[in-house]
Write a structure and sequence with these properties.
The complex is a heterodimer. By secondary structure, chain A is mainly alpha-helical. Chain A is 73% helix and 0% strand. Chain A has seven helices and no strands. Chain A has helices at 9-41, 55-82, 87-117, 125-146, 150-164, 167-177, 197-242. In chain A, helix 1 packs antiparallel against helix 7 (197-242), helix 2 (55-82) packs across helix 5 and helix 3 runs antiparallel to helix 4. The mean pLDDT of chain A is 90. Chain B is rod-shaped, with a radius of gyration of 24 Å. Helices cover 70% and strands 0% of the residues of chain B. Chain B is built from two helices and no strands. By secondary structure, chain B is mainly alpha-helical. Chain B has helices spanning 13-50, 56-62. Classes of the chains: A mainly alpha, B mainly alpha.
Chain lengths: 255, 64
């Protein structure tokens, strides 16, 4: 199946119907492996002790929150430049999932920060920029719900998404540009990861699990959005057939 | 009652447990929301088609 064929929503729905069972099953299996590795294989950190196990969910959630927004930005270009029929479907479906991963990043970070830093929250550059990302997600979801017409809402949300994309490099490099309480990058950095392989491997398996969960949920949410648009089209069609044309006299009750 | 060293996770076991429970609950909640939405959309579509409202492509497909 050529990539262009996926522009047809019916073909996309057929692909999703075939792929979802495998994606869902692999997401569950890899997630169980990740939990096993996190609790029974990975050693405790020499400084942070067992709280390092929070990293196995905090870091993948952070990666996915930024990946999801980047995917939305790419979809927004597809909406504005090529008007690809599935581009704004993809962007709209991704927004609540990205918001959920960003919420998890903030919440698990807070649960990790309290025992390690002695505080639930601090207004440092990394934490604040991720909070802005979360607010951006909520703003985009609100914008989608404000406008009835999906194509108008799609274009408005695409512009807002692209404006907000400036925050992604700020999040990534905030720990380098400013003096933050948050630690600098330890995996995606020049010179390779600075984490010991015994902790890095479970982290990468957990990241794979989160990615599979994301792809599964995104495909399922895209399918819902395609169906929602079909329902809307049919409802408009029904309203057109049921509404008498203007200027035609209505029969009186006694006629 | 969970002690402070639940599952041998040290004195911060509560924080670790809370982080994992919150993550699992959020992902399960999101999955349930998406599944319920799918059911709502397929029911609405089936209801409309039952009342004879069909897409042009579906009508073309049914013609010989």
């Amino acid at each position: 199946m050529a990539l262009l064929d996926l522009a047809n929503p019916t073909r996309f729905l057929a692909l999703v119907a075939r792929a979802l069972p495998f994606l869902g099953a692999s997401a569950v299996v890899v997630s169980l492996c990740a939990i096993y590795l996190a609790f029974f294989v990975a050693p405790e950190d020499y400084q942070q002790g067992d709280t390092v196990r929070i990293m196995f969910i905090h870091v993948p959630a952070a990666w996915l929150s930024m990946f999801c927004y980047s995917l939305m930005a790419a979809s927004s270009i597809g909406t504005l430049v090529w008007r690809h029929p599935l581009a704004d479907v993809s962007a709209k479906a991704a927004a609540p999932i990205g918001a959920a991963f960003t919420f998890l990043c903030l919440a698990t970070g807070s649960l990790w920060g309290k025992p390690m830093w002695g505080t639930w929250w601090i207004w440092d550059a990394r934490l604040t920029s991720v909070l802005i990302l979360f607010l951006m997600y909520l703003g985009i979801i609100s914008l989608w719900r404000t406008l009835d017409d999906p194509s108008r809402a799609g274009r408005a949300a695409a512009i807002l998404t692209l404006v907000g994309f400036i925050n992604i490099p700020i999040i990534k490099f905030s720990v380098d540009w400013w003096n933050t309480l948050h630690q600098p990058a330890s995996v995606l950095r020049v010179g390779g990861p600075s984490i010991h392989p015994s902790i890095l491997m479970p982290l990468l398996v957990s990241a794979l699990a989160f990615t599979l969960i994301f792809i599964t949920l995104h495909f399922a949410a895209m399918r819902n959005e395609v169906l929602r648009r079909r329902v809307r089209t049919l409802q408009l069609l029904q309203a057109q057939t049921e509404t008498p044309p203007l200027g035609v006299a209505q029969p009186s009750a006694g006629a | 009652m969970l002690g402070p060293d639940f599952l041998g996770q040290g004195p911060h076991a509560g924080f670790i447990l809370a982080a994992y429970c919150l993550t699992i609950a959020t992902i399960l909640g999101l999955s349930a929301w998406i599944l319920l939405d799918y059911r709502t959309q397929t029911n609405s579509l089936a209801d409309l088609e039952r009342r004879g409202v069909t897409r042009r492509s579906a009508r073309r497909g049914s013609n010989p």
